[in-house]
Structure formats: structure tokens, C-alpha cells
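[Discussion] Sanity-checking designs against the backbone

I'm trying to build intuition for which residues belong where. Below is a C-alpha cell string of 129 positions. I'd appreciate it if someone posts a full sequence so I can compare it with mine line by line.
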């Protein structure tokens, strides 16, 4: 079970690393599935800075937590994805529902569930030592 959990957390990390590197090196192409467009050079810079920062930080913390089987770093991507879901929920309330609104929320919720499971497991293991 522990190996499966480490693998799932690792996949969360790799998924976010790929997204983060995509925003860093090919921001316009990576932004399109997110329904974003840069518009100009400053827009590209914002995509590179903000989105790559979000996803690479989430990836680094998830990968480190999985590698070391350490709970604390997992709190960072958990918080990032929880804030993202909160922002999307506010958007649903204020802007309305679109057919594409729920897919990213489901992905974020699944990642939170995996990371929370890892956090609980790793927290228990460290307190048992």
C-alpha cells in the first residue's frame, strides 16, 4: 500500500511538473487548454511566472514528500489546490456554470485526496517512530 501511495503522490508531482515546465517554456500552447491566452509579451511573462510557479512548487513539494515519505511538504500542494477549488467555486457562484467548469475541479479534488491520504499516512508513520 505504501508503494502505491508513494507512486500516486509521485504521479501528482510529475503531472504538475509537466504543466509547470509547459507554462515556463511554451506558455501560449500550454495555456490554451486552460482557456487562457497571453495577448502580448507581458501576458506571456505572467503565464511563465505565475502558472509555472504554482505548478512547479506543487510538483516539488509533492515529489519531495513522496521521496522522503514526509508529510509536511504535502501541505503546500494541498493548500494550493484547495485555494484553486475555492476560486473556481466563487467563479461558479458569480459567473455561472459552464460545461467545462467541473473537470478541473475534479482533477484538483482527486489530487487533494491523494495528497491528504499521503499526509495522514506519513504523519502516522512519523509519530509512531
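Best answer:
Here's mine. Compare freely.
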Amino acid at each position: 500500500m505504501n508503494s502505491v501511495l508513494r507512486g500516486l503522490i509521485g504521479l501528482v508531482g510529475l503531472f504538475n511538473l509537466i504543466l509547470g515546465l509547459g507554462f515556463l517554456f511554451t506558455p501560449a500552447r500550454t495555456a490554451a487548454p486552460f482557456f487562457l491566452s497571453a495577448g502580448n509579451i507581458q501576458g506571456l511573462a505572467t503565464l511563465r511566472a505565475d502558472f509555472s510557479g504554482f505548478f512547479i512548487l506543487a510538483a516539488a513539494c509533492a515529489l519531495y514528500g513522496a521521496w522522503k515519505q514526509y508529510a509536511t511538504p504535502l501541505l503546500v500542494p494541498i493548500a494550493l489546490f484547495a485555494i484553486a477549488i475555492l476560486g473556481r467555486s466563487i467563479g461558479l457562484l458569480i459567473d455561472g456554470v459552464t460545461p467545462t467548469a467541473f473537470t478541473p475541479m475534479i482533477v484538483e479534488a482527486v489530487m487533494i485526496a491523494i495528497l491528504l491520504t499521503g499526509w495522514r499516512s506519513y504523519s502516522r508513520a512519523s509519530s509512531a517512530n
